[in-house]
UniProtKB/TrEMBL annotation:
Gene3D superfamilies: Dihydrofolate Reductase, subunit A. Pfam families: RibD_C. This is Deaminase/reductase. InterPro entries: DHFR-like_dom_sf (IPR024072), RibDG_C (IPR002734), Riboflavin_Biosynth_HTPR (IPR050765). It comes from the Bacteria. Residues 2-179 form the Bacterial bifunctional deaminase-reductase C-terminal domain.
């Protein structure tokens, strides 16, 4: 069974929308516009590329990343590993950044049940919430920013369900106030 890791930049109030400057959100770019840069805070992001074996994205994140990530040297690990995108609307993948299209959460479950190393989910708020609601998330890699953003896409769903217990396995606070939180889902 493969480990499924949801990795996210998130505000203290749970917003994960447009951290890198994506258009259409009032606080777009909040990770670099509103918090001083500290390279130490991003060590986890580099480590993820060495510790994961595949990348899983929702359609909107895939379409946003496909024209950009293949040109970025800092994403060489992700660019060389297998990629999967969950979508009911994509006809095929983007030739600039090929990925296997999965049509449902059940297909993700089958991928997770197969052989191989950990699978990382980046961005993909809707997908991440659906995976958590389906009980497929094993770990969270969070960089929690000292901001309250109010409205915006949330990391966690608002589904009425039993409590999900998490175990904090790694934590660090950086000079700029960002907190690294690595949490395992307790089953």
């Amino acid at each position: 069974m493969r480990t499924l890791i949801v990795s996210a930049f998130v505000s203290l109030d749970g917003v994960m929308e447009a951290p890198g400057g994506e258009p259409g959100y009032r606080n777009s770019g909040w990770t670099f516009k509103d918090v001083a840069f500290d390279p130490a805070a991003y060590e986890l992001k580099g480590r993820e590329q060495h510790e994961t074996a595949a990348l899983l994205l929702g359609r909107r994140s895939y379409e946003a990343f496909a024209p950009v990530w293949p040109t970025m040297d800092e994403f060489a690990g992700y660019n060389s590993m297998p990629r999967y995108v969950v979508s009911t609307t994509l006809d095929g993948d983007d030739k600039r950044w090929p990925a296997t299209v999965l049509r449902s959460i059940d297909e993700v479950r089958r991928l997770k049940e197969g052989d191989g190393g950990p699978i990382a989910v980046h961005g993909s708020a809707t997908l991440g919430a659906a995976l958590a609601d389906a009980g497929l998330v094993d770990r969270y890699h969070l960089l929690v920013f000292p901001l309250l953003l109010g409205a915006g896409k949330q990391l966690f769903s608002r589904t009425d369900k039993d409590a999900t217990k998490l175990v904090l396995v790694e934590h660090e606070v950086y000079n700029n106030g960002i907190q690294k939180q690595v949490l395992d889902v307790q089953r």
